[in-house]
Amino acid sequence: MTVSFPDLDMLIEEVEVLRADRLSPSFVRFELGTPAFAELGGDGPYFDQRIKLVFPHEDGPVPSFEGADDSWWETWVERPEEERGHMRTYTIRDVVGSGEDTRLVVDIVLHGDDDGDHDGEAGPGSAWAAQAKVGDRLVTMAPRRGYEYGGIEFAPGDATRVLLVGDETALPAIAGILRDLPGDAVGTALCEVPLSADVQELPAPAGVEVVWLPREGAALGSLVHAAAVERLGAAPVEISVSDDEVDPDLWETPRYSSSGEEVVEEPAHTDDLYVWIAGESKVVTGLRRVLVNDLGLDRRQVAFMGYWRVGVSMAS
Ligand SMILES: Cc1cc2nc3c(=O)[nH]c(=O)nc-3n(C[C@H](O)[C@H](O)[C@H](O)COP(=O)(O)OP(=O)(O)OC[C@H]3O[C@@H](n4cnc5c(N)ncnc54)[C@H](O)[C@@H]3O)c2cc1C
């Protein structure tokens, strides 16, 4: 059954897994479908468009949003976890097909004890992705064409160069940005991934260099930090960020500040460089120190986004 809420400004849809492909050791690619995706879309390119996926609890049904209205969040969050499942944030990796055969493509990172890279528990999102098969069902929250949805942070304004920096969770967003950049765009994408086998073919404008940084056991964020610092011309200093200084929900963009910094609603770019950084929150915090404290980059030129945090469940 497809559940659809025509009055809501987004699509909250029960969807079916139409394809599930293990891309590489750390990534599974899903194509998700419902006839309601005939209405999927925004006003323009997707870039780093974020969405929500709601995974069923292992002992529960596909979460129901029956009767959802503007207060769907309050109604959902009050339910027992077995009923409401687990909501997590992901990125539109692509949209393929058309009309009622429109498919939402999402790449999910596998993590946890058996991923060969990190210790720790696989969260519900990763655990679902590791075993999901064609015909399984879950719920998506995604933009409905013709309605304001938000969730695109990439905003280079009139910058003439871009620097994209991310780990594996940011790879779908970096891929989307590279796909949607104008053909004459110039810049660099630094992509840290767990293993060499996770390197993907990423179509990008000829003027944008895509640099792969497989950790192969190196410390999380160490490669991307060093590469970003080098590209920006800062001194290669060791940055020490203590755990209690890290906000798991770090989100510092020209339009929003999770730390309460003043947000100046001006489109101005004082430099020709725009920097977009997403990944593990402590790694992003370390890069923010270099960019803001050492290099004095204007906050309107940079977006710093904590996509996940070691040891913290990003439960919604
Ligand atoms: C805007 C945005 C877009 C995102 N896009 C994507 C995307 O397209 N694909 C994608 O896979 N992720 C994406 N993420 C990251 C994803 O939401 C988090 O990794 C989330 O924690 C996964 O949920 P989970 O249920 O697997 O783990 P959780 O229940 O949140 O966490 C459980 C444990 O797993 C650990 N953990 C979580 N993620 C990772 C990881 N990547 N590597 C190692 N350990 C981890 C946590 O530290 C915690 O200890 C995005 C996040 C944001 C904010």
Describe this structure in a few short sentences:
The protein is an alpha/beta fold and 316 residues long. Helices cover 17% and strands 29% of the residues.
List keywords for this structure.
binds flavin-adenine dinucleotide; alpha/beta; 14 strands; seven-stranded mixed β-sheet; seven-stranded antiparallel β-sheet; 316 residues
What do these coordinates show?
The radius of gyration is 19 Å and the shape is globular. The chain has a 7-stranded antiparallel sheet with strand order 4-3-7-1-2-6-5. Strand 13, helix 6 (281-294) and strand 14 form a beta-alpha-beta unit. By secondary structure, it is α/β, with parallel strands linked by helices. It contains 6 helices and 14 strands. Flavin-adenine dinucleotide (FAD) binds at residues 50, 88-91, 107-109, 111, 118, 120-121, 123-126, 168-169, 172, 307-314.
Question: What's the helix and strand layout?
Answer:
Elements: E1 10-24, E2 27-33, E3 50-55, H1 72-77, H2 81-84, E4 86-91, E5 94-96, E6 103-109, H3 124-131, E7 137-143, E8 161-166, H4 171-180, E9 187-193, E10 208-214, H5 222-232, E11 251-253, E12 256-257, E13 273-280, H6 281-294, E14 302-308
The structure holds flavin-adenine dinucleotide.
Flavin-adenine dinucleotide binds next to strand 4, strand 6, helix 3 and strand 14.
